[in-house]
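Service request form, structural biology core

Requester: graduate student, group of Dr. S.
Request type: structure prediction, single chain
Budget code: on file
Notes: please return the result as structure tokens.

Sequence provided:
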Amino acid sequence: MSIYKDKKYSFEQRAKDLLSKMTVREKINQMHVYGSGDVQPLIKDINDGKKFVPFGGMFNICATKAEDLSKLQRYVMEETRLGIPILFF
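Core staff response, request fulfilled:
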């Protein structure tokens, strides 16, 4: 298990480990916030077996079904290289 996933390490140790594993592109993507709130194109990609680059957050999700957000979060945490969750606003 990577240090960044192991809760026995301090926040600082975990953050340092995660950042050391991230590419510049992954760091930039984590600062990106998906603004439309429409997750249907992303859900369609997941259902079609297409990969997409994870992003850091998503806002304006009021009309989004909880099961769609859950599916999106599960995909990002289980199917992407580092498994960093999305922040929903």
